Amino acid sequence: QVQLVESGGGLVTAGGSLRLSCAASGRTFSSYAMGWFRQAPGKEREFVAAISWRGSNTYYADSVKGRFTISRDNAKNTVYLQMNSLKPEDTADYYCAAVRSSSWYAVYRDQAEYDNWGQGTQVTVSS
To answer: For residues 46, 48, 117 and 14, what is the CA-based torsion angle, rounded to 10 degrees?
Structure first.
């Protein structure tokens, strides 16, 4: 198990950028595939981006492709979500999640596959 703590959320105007961070505890972070999800008010939580435990493979939701970048620094036990060209529809609570993976290249977009979750960080994009 790992404990996850997100940070970096806030209020930004449309077209702006934010970088979210997710710090993980534990010595085996590098064996966990990671993902970012978001939940807008009144909506279900949805997949945003995922990265394999080596960082070599990534996967994005169509709605953020070309604007968001997921990355990780295993030496710092941290995964990042760089969000550029933000839109009001990106407003949501953002959660990072982790799943231990035996496959160095696997990415997971189904939230049911993740068994470690952070508490979330709020992102608000004003028009």
So the answer is: -100
**How do 4-7 and 121-126 pair as beta strands?**
unpaired
Output b/e per residue, 89-118; b: 16+ Cβ within 10 A: ebbbbbbbbbbebeeeeebbbebeebebbb
| Residue 62, Cβ density class (10 Å: 0-12 exposed, 13-18 middle, ≥19 buried) | exposed
Residue count (the chain)? 127
What does each C-alpha distance from 37 to 27, 75, 127 come to in angstroms? 24, 23, 22
Question: pLDDT band for position 81 (50/70/90)?
Answer: very high
